[in-house]
Write a structure and sequence with these properties.
There is one protein chain. By secondary structure, the protein is of the alpha/beta class. It folds into three domains: 151 residues, Nitrogenase molybdenum iron protein domain (Rossmann fold, 3-Layer(aba) Sandwich), CATH 3.40.50; 183 residues, Nitrogenase molybdenum iron protein domain (Rossmann fold, 3-Layer(aba) Sandwich); 33 residues, no CATH class. It has 16 helices and 14 strands. It has a six-stranded parallel sheet with strand order 1-11-10-9-12-13, with helices on both faces. Strands 6-5-4-7-8 form a five-stranded parallel sheet, with helices on both faces.
């Protein structure tokens, strides 16, 4: 049976916890050890290690890892006008949404003569990773590059695995360049993460890494982010997931299509339906079987459906509570008055409201970013935005009168903490001649 139906109220707490459990994805000790070896080799041997590892893992001989202007022109010529138009439309919408996210400077006088400010600066150099895996992902290049360009990061480099012909995927190359990437490199996997984190003869060192990847890439990102000489990362990453909340009036055809659109991402993806209608759950189950037969990636989707769930609940309020507990990467609301549920939604990476808002538009071109927290991390992390490509710096400036007005507070607090030098830094100034 495809995606079994479960009654929430018939389950005890342990069974409910098991029902919402995600597939295990953590890299095992053997994988982490091999990734550590890859990172150490790239850090030690630079481009030589990158070329050798690319030969070993991708089966490709790459002499020059940087994508040159001639390859960009060739990639541009290889794409149909419709593909170029779709890339440009997606970039335009993502840019329009993200331009409004630029943080505004803040400057206030907290008390007379005491001015405090918060100033935003773009990160100096960022590294973007676009996986290839079973399919190229030009949409990922757009989602990463556009906010980096809007933030104004001076150096925006991108790594993506080479194809068997030694070139990068044409759609990824074109999307990346049009979205604002400064340099593209034909490097994949853990070696790409290491190259960007530490730098090589060809690849500049960056201060922060962005983008999804497999268990090897995720392990490499975790490793370099724990090293002060490495690079920070955007967020932990896991398999893609979607949760749909639907009432009895929802169209089973739409719900099934939304579930399958995430199930086809990978065998470790997870999709869930929460509904107050057993009839809808049964209809969705039947629709999944029919639609699955039409998909080119049916085998992948079928495997993902093995750990996916259709759950019947008492009412939509219960569904919202369960969704907040699960904290999905993508949440689709196919219920009457869907927008009215938004104030109750606490934990979700991105929300899709109403029957005419498939998750696919967020993946590609509505304007929101599709780099989102997975594996329940939506409880603490936000989806990617311009602010992650910036850092904030605070500034304070006091007049002598301002320090006089605030001085006694500093002296008292410094006394409570036993920090005499802190108090002296204020007392000496107040005792000095103007």
């Amino acid at each position: 049976m495809i995606a079994a139906i479960h009654d929430w109220n018939e389950l005890g707490e342990d069974a409910r916890k098991a029902l919402l459990a995600r597939p295990a994805v953590a890299a095992g000790p053997a994988t982490r050890e091999r990734v550590a070896g890859i990172v150490a080799a790239v850090r030690r041997d630079g481009d030589d290690a990158v070329r050798e590892l690319t030969r070993r893992f991708d089966g490709v001989e790459v002499l020059a890892v940087r994508v040159g202007e001639d390859e960009y022109e060739t990639a541009l010529a290889a794409l149909e006008p419709a593909a170029l138009a779709a890339i440009d439309t997606a970039i335009g919408n993502v840019r329009r949404f993200h331009e409004r996210q630029l943080p505004a400077p803040l400057s206030i006088e907290t008390m007379p003569g005491v001015r405090c400010e918060r100033i935003s600066h773009a990160l100096d150099a960022v590294g973007l990773y676009v996986p290839a895996g079973s399919a190229p992902l030009p949409s990922a290049a757009i989602m990463l590059a556009v906010p980096a360009a809007i933030a104004g990061c001076p150096q925006r480099i991108l790594c993506t695995p080479p194809r068997k012909d030694g070139r990068a995927d044409p759609a990824v190359v074109v999307a990346a360049r049009r979205a604002g990437v400064t340099d593209i490199y034909r490097i994949g996997g853990a070696q790409a993460i290491a190259a960007m984190a530490y730098g090589t003869e060809s690849v500049p060192k960056v201060c922060k890494l962005f983008g999804p990847g497999n268990a090897w890439v995720t392990a490499a990102k975790s490793l370099v982010s724990a090293d002060p000489e490495g690079a920070a990362i955007d967020m932990p990453a896991g398999p893609s997931e979607v949760l749909v909340i639907a009432d009895g009036a929802a169209r089973a055809e739409f719900v099934a299509a939304d579930l399958l659109s995430q199930a086809e991402h990978g065998a470790d993806s997870q999709v869930l339906l929460l509904t107050d209608s057993r009839e809808l759950a049964s209809a969705v189950q039947e629709e999944i079987g029919q639609q699955l037969a039409t998909l080119s990636r049916a085998a992948i989707a079928r495997e993902a459906l093995g750990h996916s769930r259709l759950i019947v609940v008492d009412d939509i309020a219960a569904a919202v509570a369960i969704s907040n507990r699960y904290a999905p990467e993508h949440l689709i609301l196919q219920v009457a008055g869907a927008r009215e549920l938004l104030p109750a939604i606490r934990n979700a990476g991105s929300v899709f409201v109403g029957p005419w808002t498939p998750e696919s538009v967020g993946d590609y071109c509505s304007g929101t970013n599709h780099v989102l927290p997975t594996y329940g991390l939506a409880r603490a992390y936000s989806g990617l935005g311009v602010e992650q490509f910036t850092r904030q710096m605070t500034v304070q400036e006091l007049t002598r009168d301002g320090l006089a007005g605030l001085g006694e507070t500093v002296l008292t607090l410094a006394g409570l903490e036993g920090l005499d030098a802190h108090a002296a830094a204020v007392r000496r100034r107040l005792g000095a001649a103007t």
